[in-house]
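Example: Bifunctional glutamine synthetase adenylyltransferase/adenylyl-removing enzyme.
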Amino acid sequence: MAEQARGAASPARYGFTDDRADEQLRAAGWWTDAGPDQSSTGVLTALSRAADPDLALRGLDRIREADEAGWPALSDALCQNAAFRGRLVAVLGTSSALADFLVGAPGEWRRLAQDKCTDTDCFADQLLAAVHADQDEPLTRTAAEQALRAGYRGLLLEIAAADLAHVVEPVLEQPSYAEVTANLTALAEAALVAGLEVARAELKSKDLEGTRLAVIAMGKCGGRELNYVSDVDVIFVGEGDLQLATRLATNTMRVVGNACFEVDAALRPEGKAGALVRTLDGHTAYYQKWARTWEFQALLKARAVAGDAELGRQYVEMADDVVWSAAERENFVEDVQQMRRRVEKHVPSELAERELKLGRGGLRDVEFAVQLLQLVHGRVDTKLRSASTMDALEALGAGGYVGLADAAELETAYEFLRTVEHRLQLRRLRRTHLFPEASETAELRILARSIGVRPERGRGEADVLLGDFRRCAQRIRRLHEKLFYRPLLQSVASVPTEALRLTTKQAARRLAALGYAAPDGALQHIKALTAGVSRRASIQHALLPVLLDLFADTADPDGALLAYRKVSEALEDTPWYLRVLRDEGAVVERLAFLLGTSKLVPDLLVRAPEVLQLLGDPERLAGRDPDEVAKSLRATVRRQPGIKAAVAAARSLRRHEMLRVAAADLLGLMDVRRVCEALSRVWVAVLQSALAAAIRKREAELGRKPANIAVIGMGRLGGAELGYGSDADVLFVCEANDGVDDGEAVRFASSVAENVRQMLGQPSADPPLQVDADLRPEGRGGPLVRTLESYRAYYARWSEVWEAQALLRARYIAGDDALGERFIEMINPIRYPDGGLDAGRVREVRRMKARVQTERIPRGTDPTLNTKLGRGGLADVEWAVQLLQLRHAHAVPSLRTTSTVNALAAAAEADLVAAEDAESLTEAWLLATRVRNATMLVRGKASDQVPSSGRDLAAVARVLGYSDEDDPGEFLDFYRRTTRRAHVVVERVFFAD
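Written out as structure tokens, the predicted fold is:
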């Protein structure tokens, strides 16, 4: 029991590990044989909360030994004044250097007993008073430096105490990071003012009349973001006698450097090799003619802090003029990015992960990203023109240049790293940016406690801090790479500043020069998009200068801008829309091309906006497996509660896929065969889903299922060769179930088929979903659905050669698998007749072709530019291929395919056509298909006619791979040349005996 009592009364319970703690506490009068003195409980609790309780107690003991006479007053204040106790103990438990100051300057602890520990408005007066030492004239040289050092350290003590006290006494208010850095900056400014006063006194024998000197703060001092231990970057600007001004500047640097901190003037023109002091005109000439990119970046933080106020003001005005035009310099963005990479390379690899300032995920990552965004966008948006990193980051978020979540995350991470940096520097008042190694557990624990980090489940303070630091670095690096290397930055920087002012007369002239046919109308669109003060308007203001240039490179700039306005207005409530455009440069470039090229894409985009997010990822945009797409579509539709919901879901998914495929097609990411296959697979999945939903509905109404149904794809659907505007040619076949007569089976199947056609064919803003059954026996006059046996009887008795030709592309696509397979088996002898076609039927096929091409080409159009019926077009090639199939497929199994291209390859392999002829026909068929698709995308409506002039022709040519500098007539010449060669081959093959 006695041992337990002694353990309970041990100093160890308060966190002390030093063997001398008991002795030191007794000497202070706070400990007895029975344990802590009753009046000192608060002191001991405060010591236990210090970052390093042993260090704090040791500091108090040293102060007691240095000033025994003053100790009783100090001890009483500690016991009775919680605010004072929190400040002093926090400082002593964190900083051995400030403890040394308190030991060497008895009585300075009284600074911390004041109601308000820091008052920045009085800093300059206090330091000036220190160097004057109650005299009219200031001290000089060593005496001045010593006085300034003491005054500076005393004020630094006050700032640190206010910063740290909440850790020891949680009831005390914690100053914000911005308040702490502002206090430190105010102290540095006061030191420069006092140092300049001493420097003037040292040159009292000289005639300084007419000699003016202004001190311009740069870097963290300019941004009011100083650390506890920093070089203070300055630039000196003078007028009058520059030799005297230079001596004045040199003396100021010496006095302040010896007393407070190093004053670094290396950011001046030409660096350390340049003159220390230049005139305002000299600075101006240098920045206009010789300055490098990094120097403008440094000038972003220029701020006059001491000396001649008017000269300082003029310098800052000059700096503003050159800084906010710097982004127009050639390769500006690339230069800034390259500089960051150079800085990073200079960090030793073994220290890179611990380097708070220069390493990956360090402070410089945040600062470079913020400054680059400021310099690019701040040319027009004056709200971004702040020297403070945190203020600028907040403005970038508020203005929409950075996502709010990203800005908040960067602010939090930056503040955390700066706080860690402050605590590391306070320890010994040495400049350091190196985070402790993971193995330095004791150092990490002290650092964590100084910040206020507390242990978590199973993890001590050191582990918690280490984890927080690593996560913080990862977040900063991720966001740095996202923002700093954003492609949009280079694009915005390349736009002249005046062009960024989007609604001026100069902007109208620029739009006309860029190729906008109606610049006044374009300005109205711009005003509508950027109206107001919302974040949305701000983001649009940042995006539009780039988009206007990108639109100008398309075939229809005016149409692109109008489409962009419609899309933006339709998606204004979609939270990620503008964020994707702002953050993904590739998305902006691709969207601009799509909007300036296609009338179909904008219409689809407003109803399938999710596809926009795929534009930045070509693999996701173009790489989807058609089978997986179809499977997903069927599964989604199957989950819908009724046929209307099922068809709506099918339409929505088809729209998404059509837009995805169209975008990939226009961007050259999918070849024409993959496009046709993807569109065909989607159409098949829609039919499968709609048929299944219609069957379920009708079966529920009847309470049974009288028949099985199969859908046979015909034409381009059967050949998996659908385009964007193609109808779905089909046949419906049914078969009665047991106990059901054919009449009832046909009625059931007909109601299902008609329901499918009506539901899918309802008017829509999307390309139509027209189910066409006109290729059925007896055409439109025949029944919509027949039984398998009815089809068999019809084809055996009544079918004509054109019907056998149509069946060449028949393919089972939906419904009952077994029924579909039996239908295909039944028609094989019809479409692949044994022995081929006799001479009479061959002549009939040839007559039909001639009649179709004569009667169906629209009058007044150029027959050489009709993709379907024109010379060497789709029909020309298909008639030749299908005649080969009708004549030879019975003997050549590889010809038994619904694909035109595959049939041509099989014909060449079987020596039915020469290889070069097959190649010519394939090239023409693929070209005509591609041009037909491109025309649909460009015009927004189906057309077989190739545009022959104007913007539509230019747009189709661009889709086909011609640049905006090429004459679109070259594309027409190529099309005519290719189809003419193919037509010659068709004539030879089609009429060959």
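Confidence is low (pLDDT under 50) at residues 1-7.
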